[in-house]
Write a sequence for this structure.
């Protein structure tokens, strides 16, 4: 029977013997490798294997024990396993190359298939994020103030039976407009994508008009300008209703991202232009329509769904849409129209509507602060002077209005608590059509020639 101390000696000796055996096995393997160049051969062939070179004991110990090297160890382990598998399964270098090529092709096909599936599944999410990103990029502001984002699906914003989201947005707008202090009121409401029908657009247009905000949204994503014109005409989205003056509708969607040819994606990712346009409107002077080469250029967008001829741009603009055009090496909005098509040119031009809504809200806020003061000659003069100072500050080139006239500011002769304020303002209108006229005349030697040439 063995003594206890002999048993302990036997158990502690076993790991030592195993270590020596492993060390001997490593040395034996290195000796076999010596005739081919030693461990240096592995270092020149396998990336990262220098970290376990037996001759570099300190580096090897750090690599094998430090927690921060765990990912590198796992990568190297998989690489070595792959090498071992290739070497053990093939008898010649030619077979090894062929086997590796087959595995590479199989892995590439699998990766391409999985990436294609991932891109397809996340396509809608990607479009939403890229749409929101273009709003911020086009504000050209480091930190955009006073922005509220509602996480809602477009289908939820179309649903007139379950109006939970519509009511939530209505409440947000109303809570900041239907009050005495208007410093937190909203000016722009952006709904990217097509709302689907005239009744839904009307619902949102009335909501925007009631709270004096400009609704920026999009028409349907279609392939050709003729399709847009035909389907827009059939949708009856324009009209002489005053609330339609608070709606902008874009067409010809933007290329948010080019297609991934590596995974055989067949189509570019298209996104609605409304958010990008709204960001540009946020950045642009209120009296200036965000349209044309100088003011309408959309940042960080390379293309649109379809090219447009000059006549097609004019037709879309006349319908009441804001087409996106790829010309002069950039994408730009090319209209200042609202969905209002009545006789009032001001209500057809969104810069005019925005200026009048803004001035109205400023005057409402100011007069709310002067409510319940006795309307004496002194009070009238003081209020009049402050109104004139405000209107003067927004009058002139590079500002909001061309000129103004206060035609009436007096107390109602019958209902004494009612004060009438009648202001006539002349807004700025964008130049849209340039009419070129040239004439010539020659009368030398009795030969006369005269002509006129006009171009629109």
């Amino acid at each position: 029977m063995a003594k206890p101390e002999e048993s302990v000696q036997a158990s502690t000796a076993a790991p030592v013997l195993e270590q020596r055996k492993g060390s001997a096995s490593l040395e034996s393997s290195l000796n076999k490798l010596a005739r081919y160049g030693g461990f240096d051969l592995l270092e020149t062939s396998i990336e990262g294997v220098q970290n376990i070179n037996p001759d570099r004991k300190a580096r090897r110990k750090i690599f094998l024990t430090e927690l921060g090297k765990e990912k590198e160890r796992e990568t190297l382990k998989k690489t070595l396993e792959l090498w071992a598998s290739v070497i053990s399964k093939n008898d010649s270098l030619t077979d090894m190359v062929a086997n590796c090529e087959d595995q590479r092709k199989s892995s590439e096909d699998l990766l391409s298939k999985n990436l294609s599936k991932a891109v397809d599944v996340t396509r809608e999410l990607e479009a939403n994020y890229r749409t929101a990103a273009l709003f911020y990029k086009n504000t050209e502001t480091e930190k955009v103030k006073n922005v509220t984002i509602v996480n809602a699906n477009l289908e939820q914003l179309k649903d007139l039976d379950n109006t939970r989201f519509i009511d939530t947005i209505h409440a947000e707008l109303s809570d900041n407009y239907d009050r005495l202090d208007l410093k937190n009121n909203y000016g722009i409401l952006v709904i990217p994508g097509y709302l689907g029908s005239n009744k839904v657009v009307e619902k949102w247009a009335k909501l925007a008009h009631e709270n004096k905000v400009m609704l920026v949204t999009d028409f349907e994503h279609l392939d050709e300008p003729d399709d847009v014109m035909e389907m827009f005409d059939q949708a009856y989205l324009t009209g002489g209703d005053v609330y339609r003056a608070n709606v902008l509708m874009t067409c010809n969607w933007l290329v948010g991202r080019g297609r991934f040819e590596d995974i055989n994606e067949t189509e570019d990712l298209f996104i609605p232009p409304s958010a990008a346009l709204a960001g540009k409107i946020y950045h642009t002077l209120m009296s200036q329509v965000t349209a044309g080469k100088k003011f309408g250029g959309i940042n960080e967008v390379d293309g649109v769904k379809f090219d447009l001829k000059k006549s097609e741009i004019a037709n879309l603009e006349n319908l009441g849409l804001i087409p996106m055009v790829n010309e002069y090496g950039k994408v730009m909005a090319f209209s200042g129209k609202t969905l209002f098509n009545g006789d009032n040119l001001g209500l057809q031009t969104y810069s005019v509507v925005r200026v009048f809504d803004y001035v109205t809200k400023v005057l409402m806020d100011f007069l709310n602060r002067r409510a319940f003061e006795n309307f004496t000659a002194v009070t009238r003069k003081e209020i009049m002077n402050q109104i004139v100072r405000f209107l003067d500050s927004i009058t002139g080139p590079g500002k909001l209005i061309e000129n103004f006239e206060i035609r009436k500011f007096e107390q109602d002769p019958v209902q004494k608590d009612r004060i009438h304020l009648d202001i006539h303002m002349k807004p700025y209108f964008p130049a849209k059509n340039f009419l070129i006229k040239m004439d010539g005349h020659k009368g030398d030697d009795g030969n006369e020639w005269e002509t006129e040439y006009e171009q629109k």
Summary: Residues 1-21 have pLDDT under 50 and may be disordered. The radius of gyration is 37 Å. The first strand starts at residue 188 and ends at 191. Residues 370-456 form one domain.
